[in-house]
Design goal:
324 residues; 11 strands; 42% helix; alpha/beta; 4-stranded parallel β-sheet; binds 6-O-phosphono-beta-D-fructofuranose; binds adenosine-5'-diphosphate
């Protein structure tokens, strides 16, 4: 990769909720940066570590044996103060002190906001999308999403075994913050009977109707998938039992969905996006983010990315119900 920008030192951080495949992205950034003749610094604990000056020089070996590891070797944090201009200016001073020219930020849309602010203050930043929620519209898939769905599917398959033995209804809550993508993908893959997300809305009458329909079919198990933050999942299971007489249990999958070995797709996606991010910095670009559409790597201004809308799981809830 040709260095058209004259930059010599770049840094990388991971921020927001961790996601499987973040390490593969760090590895790609470190190795492609070194390959292009750059010095690459890792920053521990996201924007929090940045303002505390937690920079350390990385070499090829700093990222060896990491492509298959979940979590993030750099650590992550949520740092509310970073929304303040004075705190962002303090971060810019840290870059000046160390002579670091540019930054790759790996995280979700909150992390993108921070990257945009830093770019406006003179430090070129490129965002790499990594969040299990898949709630970034400037990419079809974010790093970590495929692994999280696989983890959810694996857990739901196990719940189904016991549900089936006891003739029960399982109500399973998945993560996603306010995005239904994990729920949509997991529901179709596990043969769920109904999926509830913020977009679909919560409709108790409809849920009871579905459960009663399944009862009429003399089904041994019924499966409902619900995204977090919509309702109290234990209460939902109780209501199903009260209104239908079908014994029900609730399971909240929680943080297990964020852990574990990244699947091949997330490793490959992270390797491609991380490399592209470095290429953007070498071209002198900043305030941009990388993403994938139809297997092609694309670059968007962060400002535009944050306004984009997507619905790649359009039709999934209807198909889930139809096949139930
Ligand atoms: P994610 O990046 O996964 O969406 P968060 O929304 O928690 O996760 O954001 C991660 C971090 O990004 C926050 O803790 C904060 O440090 C930074 N951030 C979020 N919003 C802004 C903002 N408006 N301006 C500057 N930094 C922000
Ligand atoms: O953004 C990833 C995510 O796991 C969301 O799905 C979830 O709502 C949130 O982070 C949980 O955050 P925390 O780790 O702070 O509990």
């Amino acid at each position: 990769m040709e260095n058209k920008s004259g930059i010599k030192r770049i840094a990388v951080l991971t921020s927001g909720g961790d996601a499987p495949g973040m390490n593969a992205a760090i590895r790609a950034i470190v190795r492609s940066g070194i390959d292009a003749g750059l010095e690459v610094y890792g920053i521990d604990d996201g924007y929090k570590g940045l303002i505390e000056g937690k920079f350390h020089l990385m070499d090829r070996m700093s990222v060896s044996e990491t492509i298959n590891r979940g979590g993030t070797i750099l650590g992550s944090a949520r740092c509310k103060e970073f929304k303040n201009l004075e705190v962002q200016q303090k971060a810019v001073e840290k870059f000046r002190e160390l002579g670091v020219d540019a930054l790759v930020t790996i995280g979700g849309d909150g992390t993108y906001q921070g990257a945009l602010k830093l770019t406006r203050l003179g430090v070129n930043c490129i965002g790499v999308p990594a969040t299990i929620d898949n709630d970034i519209a400037s990419t079809e898939y974010s790093i970590g999403f495929h692994t999280a769905v696989n983890t959810a599917v694996d857990a739901i398959d196990k719940i189904r075994d016991t549900s089936n033995s006891h003739r029960r209804c399982s109500v399973v809550e998945v993560m996603g913050r306010y995005c239904g993508d994990i729920a949509y993908a997991a529901a179709l893959a596990t043969g769920a009977d109904y999926v509830i997300t913020a977009d679909i809305g919560f409709n108790m009458e409809q849920i009871i109707k579905i459960v009663k329909k399944c009862q009429k079919q003399n089904r041994r198990h019924i499966l409902i998938i619900v995204t977090e933050h919509i309702t109290d999942t234990s209460d939902l299971a109780r209501q199903v039992e009260i209104h239908t007489g079908y014994e029900s249990r609730a399971t909240v999958l929680g943080h297990m969905q964020r852990g574990g070995t990244p699947v091949w797709y997330d490793r490959n996606l992270a390797s491609r996006l991380g490399t592209k991010a470095v290429e953007c910095l070498l071209n002198g670009e900043g305030g941009k983010c990388v993403g994938i559409f139809n297997n092609e790597i694309k670059v968007f201004p962060i400002e535009e990315a944050l306004k984009m809308k997507k619905n790649i799981f359009e039709g999934y809830p209807e198909l889930t119900e139809k096949l139930s």
